[in-house]
Amino acid sequence: MGLAVSLYSTVTFEPNQSKLTITDCPQRYQNADNLIYKAFVKACQFLNQPVPKVKISVDNQIPMSRGLGSSAFCIVAGLKGANAWFNEPLSQTQLLDLATEMEGHPDNVSPAIYGKLGVSFIDSDKNVQTVHFDVSDKLHFVAMIPNYAVSTEQARKILPTEMSYKDAIYQVSHAVALSKALEDGNLSLIKSAIIDRMHEPFRQQLIPDYQKAKNICENSHGVMYISGSGSTMMAITDNKASAQEIFEDIKKDFPDWEVLQLNVDNVGATVEVTQEVE
Length: 278
Ligand SMILES: Nc1ncnc2c1ncn2[C@@H]1O[C@H](COP(=O)(O)OP(=O)(O)OP(=O)(O)O)[C@@H](O)[C@H]1O
Ligand SMILES: N[C@@H](CCO)C(=O)O
Known about the structure:
This protein is of the alpha+beta class. It has two domains: 132 residues, Ribosomal Protein S5, domain 2 (2-Layer Sandwich); 123 residues, Alpha-Beta Plaits. The chain has ten helices and ten strands. The strands form three sheets. It has a four-stranded antiparallel sheet, sandwiched between helices. A three-stranded antiparallel sheet has the order 1-5-6. The protein is globular, with a radius of gyration of 19 Å. Adenosine-5'-triphosphate binds next to helix 2. It holds the Pfam family GHMP_kinases_N. InterPro entries: GHMP_kinase_C_dom, GHMP_kinase_C_sf, GHMP_kinase_N_dom, Homoserine_kinase, Ribosomal_Su5_D2-typ_SF, Ribsml_uS5_D2-typ_fold_subgr. One of its GO terms (biological process) is threonine biosynthetic process.
């Protein structure tokens, strides 16, 4: 499951004199290994088109390795950039397939492409299946982004390799009920359905401030979950005043954290063409 929230980065693709120029991102990503460029190249190759000389500028608002899908953003941006360059030959489904192949799973790339709450899986024919839920606009989200990263690799390693039948039943029923609770904006159902046995009990060890942040959210009648593989924790409330209270309390106790009040995005990544490529 993945939820698209209103946190946006913008990538600009322009014709260039030399093979590749990348600006406005850390020096170590200003080369052909940049994930946005790799996705751009992947789409060109899929379309049997020569890779154009391109200048890529990044206005990045999505912090890296914080569980907010920064790698999914890069992949979707690169694929959609190339698709726009060649006048949109790829369907959303083809974009999803290519993005899933690059990210390794559809959880984050589906909401990045389609917006909303996406529930996705890879079926027995290796096709990506994804369905979407409209999330109630009664719900408010507060992203609490620690000033430390959690590597996805480490967050995967800390998980057990097996789960009991009892926990699997618990988890499946809770996940399905959670989708409906988010659609209905039913906070009391969200509170019980979101209690997870699959990753939070293990991954919270990697986030030293997990319990303190959770207490702050619960004191203001909110509920909290670990976003992606962490370190970001996301609060959900059903009123603006609670969201504001959580925002202020987290800011007070963790002045070095980035705290953002967000909504659900219902649209996914968008493209604006400002210059036709000849
Ligand atoms: N602005 C960027 N420019 C270039 N590469 C980036 C950028 N943002 C993210 N990346 C790439 O994505 C990687 C981070 O992916 P990772 O899966 O560790 O974190 P995440 O996607 O933020 O977290 P999660 O998958 O839990 O939501 C970076 O190591 C880098 O390769
Ligand atoms: N769903 C993934 C997100 C990280 O990409 C995980 O929790 O491992």
